[in-house]
Amino acid sequence: MAASRRPALLSWTVVVPLLSVVVLALSWGRDLGPVPVAVVALALAGTVLAAVHHAEVVAHRVGEPFGSLVLAVAVTVIEVALIVTMMASGGPEAASLARDTVFAAVMITMNGIAGISLMVGARRYGETHFNPEGSGAALATVATLATLSLVLPTFTSSTPGPEFSGTQLTFAALASLLLYGLFVLTQTVRHRDFFLPVETDGTVKPEDHAEPPTTKAALTSLGLLVVALVAVVGLAKVESPAIEAGVRAAGFPQSFVGVVIALLVLLPETLAAVRAAQRDRMQTSLNLAYGSAIASIGLTIPAIALASVWLSGPLLLGLGATQIVLLALTVLVSALTVVPGRATRLQGGVHLVLLAGFLVLAINP
């Protein structure tokens, strides 16, 4: 019996998060040279991959759509922690970090995660199928949240610049929480069947045939997931000066730091979504994509609004004209993608081109 347990205890998915905590303790608060920075980066990448594994174990135990929800909330916790810590330690350039990161997360989830999942699924099965009712509801929630929190500040006149007044920010935060709560209730209780993988004829797919993990294994993975997420947040904070220095050295605008943060924190969900697409469970991939976008806005904006009480400096949330155009086009294309309930490689390619356009304009606005 002991011999059968040893491989699990010595698995890299167990060892890496624990080693990363040690790396975090040794590197926290220190000025790191090139070699330690590289070690931290490797530990960060390995911990992200371990977090994916443990999130998938938990997801398999609780089933869909709860599994997607667990990963979406976990990733958003990382995002909020990174934004708040970097805004607290940053100068005037940090005023737009929340906007840059949240907008990047929306573009990466709606075009990147959704696009690559559609491409992978359609390439393997010819055509991917999903529930348009659930995906459409999620898309409508994303569009509303993005407009209320990221578009309206550009056009309000109570305060100069792309900034909400105190009353407007409070409304946006409360509306974001309300919409997020309604979406979670719809996804997990009232209309759970809208968010389950479907067959070509629209009927709900059976659960994966693999034996679900035991309660003990799921709880162990949940604990290791928490450890991994804490390590990711801490290591990303340690790595953030190197990220900012790298962005400056590459000649990119400071706003690209938000893109790097979003790419980093969304890596676990991207990998999980691609794996679901490979198993012909496209609805799970879209749950991850749109659920992440909803959580990114619906939880991050209220958290940043609360943090702004003690953070000095303005909180710039309004998007520029180019970003608004990209957001509007993304919502339109996404609607055309989800309405039929099926998609091919063409739709995946269109979303990936939109992502490429976003990245090019983020580098060279």
Shape, per Cα inertia axes: globular
What is the helix fraction of residues, given as a range? Answer: over 70%
The succession of helices and strands, N to C, reads HHHHHEHHHHHHHEH
Proportion of β residues?
Answer: under 5%
Largest sheet: 2 strands, antiparallel
CATH class: Mainly Alpha
Oligomer: single chain
Membrane topology: Multi-pass membrane protein
InterPro entries: Alkaline_pH_Ca-Antiporter (IPR052946), NaCa_Exmemb (IPR004837)
Main location: membrane
Protein name: Ca2+:H+ antiporter
Describe the structure concisely for a colleague:
The chain is mainly α and 365 residues long. It is built from 13 helices and two strands.
Describe, in plain words, how this protein is organized in 3D:
- The protein is mainly alpha-helical.
- The protein has a single domain, classed as NCX, central ion-binding region (A middle domain of Talin 1, Up-down Bundle).
- The chain is 75% helix and 1% strand.
- Helix 5 packs antiparallel against helix 11.
- Keywords: Membrane, Transmembrane, Transmembrane helix.
